[in-house]
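REQUEST FORM: STRUCTURE PREDICTION
Request ID: SP-0412
Submitted by: Lab K.M.
Chain count: 1
Length (residues): 97
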Amino acid sequence: MRLPKFLQVYLSSYDISKLDPKSPVVAREIITQVLNGGSVKAVRWVFDNYTLGQIRKCVEYPQKGTWFERSINYWQTILKIETPEAEYRKAIMNIYP
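STATUS: Completed
RESULT:
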């Protein structure tokens, strides 16, 4: 599976032609970045190409410092997930530490 070019904007630090979307680490990054600020088209691509379990895991156990608070709150509500408080606080991007 190759990544479509329209995802490049959400993965601007990467050359998407060199990413393996099946790699668990890469999948986690793609899911996180798209759910955090992707278009409807990008979100639809994520849900079409990754399992609900993979997506839920990215929200329930979020990467440290990568989420906008509004985005993670939205996906927790949509997916009916309660992230442990300590994990939630670590996940929120803080540009004013």
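NOTES: Residues 5 and 16 are 8 Å apart (CA to CA).
Reviewed by: T.R.
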